[in-house]
Amino acid sequence: MVIEQPTMDPTLNVLDVAGEERLYRAMASFWHPVAYSVDVGERPVPATLLDEQLVLVRLDGRVRCFRDLCVHRGTALSLGWIEDDQLRCAYHGWTYGPDGVCTQIPARFGSNIPTRARLTSFACEERHGLIWVCPSGDPRFPIPEFPQHGDPSYRSVPVERYDWHCSAHRRVENYVDFSHFAWVHDGILGDRNEPEVPDHDVWRDGREIRFGEGFFHEPHTEAPAGAASAAARSRDREGLPDRTGTILADKSYRLSMPLTVLLDQRLPGDKHYLLFFTASPVGRKITRSFTLMSRNYETDPASDEKFLSFNDLVVSQDRPVVESQRPEELPFDLSAELHIRGVDRVSIEYRKWLVELTDELVPA
Questions:
Q1: Are 23 and 169 spatial neighbours (Cβ–Cβ below 8 Å)?
Q2: Topology of domain 31-134, per CATH?
Q3: 20 to 30 Å CA-CA from 63: which of 188, 192, 216, 361?
Q4: Per residue in 45-69, pLDDT tens?
Q5: Domain ranges, ordered by start, for the chain
């Protein structure tokens, strides 16, 4: 077994505090989802991104994002309401227009409003059924692509969002880690009888890391003599579709830097099952995950629960493992953890690119 980049005792997990801080600050220069579109309706909606409290509101026909802070006395604007296409603060009734400029101070006679009476606004876009925010206002990359979401031949379903106590980069690395399938998802996504990860290509394509094409297999129903099959060992499959013994035609990943993954599982008969996943950094050690599930088969809404339940199972198996990782933040120093050549190719490439982007956006 060949160890990649051995330079120190990997059990130390030494944290490069300055490096992790720079990586976290660099995330302000990317688009991140903060809510599903369907959740932003007739009332203000609070959200959190990179430790910033935000409020989302539909004004003048589109979603706006402001700091969740009235400039008068610091009240959360998410406690207010929309009135005459204006955002009204619940404390003293100040109102703000779509541009964030104060339009009314009810307790003051006349219309002379201080020029400083305006909200801090953030770049905000609505795409793929999600509300995206870029705190810096100058995104390094555009919003990740998900063409199937608008395709009428696909049924797209939002998965209920969930929060984990880990960094967003740890969550993404877990999502694209192959060698844990046989152990964390034995009988579900992998098989402990066949834990090896075959050689696979990993390459950069524009703003994406591409990998995983054509070598994935579902767990086998049969096992070597004297060993239980993966399906028999998995006690969590009850009530879920039995897909054991199936060989997948293709399963490919597109990791849009820095925190979005599009998984395309291509089944025989030109069937596609896709997961559009993105990890939103609520804080340094809290991540909110958003997932859109799309498929061009079994498109009847009655089939949704089957697919959602399977996804919930996988997520529930991953959560305690990822939340146990220390440090919670992904080490900025590549030598801080041990890497295995070939097996960890995706993680190594991902971490290298994160370092490059951080050096570009937040120089040391």
A1: yes
A2: Rieske Iron-sulfur Protein (2.102.10)
A3: 361
A4: 999 999 999 999 999 999 999 999 9
A5: 31-134, 151-361
